[in-house]
Specification:
Helices cover 33% and strands 24% of the residues. A nine-stranded mixed β-sheet has the order 1-17-13-16-15-14-5-7-6, sandwiched between helices. Strands 2, 3, 9, 10, 11, 12, 18 and 19 form an eight-stranded mixed β-sheet that branches. The longest helix has 21 residues. Helix 1 runs parallel beside helix 7 and helix 1 crosses helix 11. The radius of gyration is 21 Å and the shape is globular. With 460 residues, the protein is an alpha/beta fold. It contains 14 helices and 19 strands. It binds flavin-adenine dinucleotide. Flavin-adenine dinucleotide binds next to helix 1, helix 2, strand 4, strand 13 and strand 17.
Length: 460
Amino acid sequence: MVGALADSQRKVFWLDSPAAPEPLPPLAGAARCELAVVGGGFTGLWAALLAAEADEDVVLLEGDRCGWGASGRNGGFLEGSLTHGLENGIARWPGEIDRLLALGRENFAAIRATIERRRIDAAWEENGLIDVATRGHEVAWLEEAADAARAHGEDVMLLDRDAMRAEVRSPTYLGGLWHRGSSATVDPARLAWGLRRAALEAGARVFEHSRVRRLRRDGPGVRLDTDRGHFHADRAVLATNAYPPLVRSIRRYVIPVYDYVLVTEPLTDAQRTALGWERRQGLADSGNRFHYYRLTPDDRILWGGYEALYHFHNGVDPRLEEHAPTFELLARNFATTFLQLEGISFTHRWAGVIDTCSRFCVTFGRALGGRVAYAVGYTGLGVGASRFGARVALDLVHDRDTELTRLELVRSRPLPFPPEPLRYAAVQATRRALARADERGGRRGPWLQVLDRIGAGFDS
Ligand SMILES: Cc1cc2nc3c(=O)[nH]c(=O)nc-3n(C[C@H](O)[C@H](O)[C@H](O)COP(=O)(O)OP(=O)(O)OC[C@H]3O[C@@H](n4cnc5c(N)ncnc54)[C@H](O)[C@@H]3O)c2cc1C
């Protein structure tokens, strides 16, 4: 491993915390409930909390610990966007985009309000997000994105090269677009643990280490089997993200993609001064392959992304979390971005699974004759959108006709991924084409043009 990684441990920085709560006991024996939620990430936790607040008899079954999946491993960028960015939303739901933006802002405000009301210590910092241009053609992209954002009432500020470098010092920066509204950074594990506590306080029952092995119809309801017990439920919400799904249709729409992250040791005062970054915004590159990075509450740098890896046949396995070439690539790119931090060490390295779908944002569905609803496919932007996903899944599972269930975003489906071995070949071809486009002034080759035409793609 390159020097900066030599002392790093394979541990998730956020989960490696004294604030981690004691595990809750697993399900044992047979029991009944009105609503079962499978999966204790943000989607499942919000679903359990909102259902319990509405006085439903709700049970959450988590296969490991709450927050153990993507929800405890991410960058902690909590964005208002429900559509994985404005551009994607405009391209797919032009007639609905202003409503989706408003719903995204409401969702963001509701998360902030819950965190305050429930006294969740999620290290919330509302400093905005800057998309950074590091290649010439990306400056023009940012200008177009700024025009589109302003046309839709978003609060953005375009930064030229000097203004960008005045915010954060890097010789690679050519410009930036600062999104100043509905954007925060959080400690995602503390948010998940806080939501778990809130759900319990609101009356939800939560079982950890209770993987649901089987889900089937059971009279008018469903039965969920774990290793040591089972639940009879009237209805179930599946919030299982990129993990092996309990209903077949999810497998067509969602593929698990590994994303890798590094965290540095805490910065010294001299290093902080050399960086600038006084306003502590979240940062992300604008290319197809992008890094996302931010300061942690204790002034380390979290640096992730760039390479997202798909493994044959929807491979998910803890062994895939160790991938030295990707960690080394991340460390080298970090060194190029922040020359002034030469000699800094990384303390943590980890990976998490992203639920990629071909439209890059959450998709919904029902199964088992409407007894089950799911919300999956956030594709790397689900920290905020998961609360919206949970609300929609609750409406769907209760067959409620609401403003949310009438949205085209909710009623439409993404293009499915092809079966293997085509699936693997298509993802690899797309990854290569995206990398080539970055190197060729952003020009999209024939393969990407075909995908654009049919409304499909690959992102993280
Ligand atoms: C490395 C990384 C960085 C990211 N960065 C960001 C970011 O900065 N901003 C952003 O908005 N998004 C980001 N994301 C995406 C974001 O983390 C997810 O969209 C979001 O956390 C999804 O939450 P979830 O509850 O749907 O899934 P998860 O948090 O993955 O939860 C699913 C849970 O279901 C459980 N489960 C699965 N199957 C079963 C079963 N059969 N029985 C019981 N339990 C089961 C799992 O154990 C898991 O805990 C990132 C993701 C990764 C991996």
